[in-house]
Amino acid sequence: MWISKQTVNGGDKAAVESGKVTLNDNGHLEAVSTGAQRSVKVYAPYGYSFSAPKGSELLMTRNAGEQVSFACEMESADTKEGEIKITASSGAYIHLKNDGSVIINGLKINSKGEIV
Questions:
Q1: DSSP string, the chain
Q2: What are the tens digits of pLDDT across the range 64-100?
Q3: Which of 19, 49, 88, 103 has the fewest beta carbons under 10 Å from its own?
């Protein structure tokens, strides 16, 4: 709801814009959108944390006068509706499947906790 309100607020500047990470050093994120932005704050759902690699596309907006990011563009994942897949840039992944199983780097654990 908040995001949709930001996109319809008038003005010359887009309320939500795409940016590209130019530097990520020990949690200090810099990105370029309509201009270079330093110390970009990153927001994610509670319990999630990520460090966007250099070159990643971000969705950015302004919050209390500061440039913030709330999402990274995701690559197409082999997930079905309702599934979740978490992937690191190294290729490591955790895939929560609809059948209750979990796949961790190719190792499948069924819904009973047994390695299949």
A1: -HHHHHHH--SSS-SEEEEEEEEEETTEEEEESSSEESS-EE--STT----PPTT-EEEEEEETTEEEEEEEPPPP-S--TT-EEEE-TTS-EEEE-TTS-EEETTEEE-TTS-B-
A2: 878 888 888 887 778 899 999 998 889 999 999 999 9
A3: 49
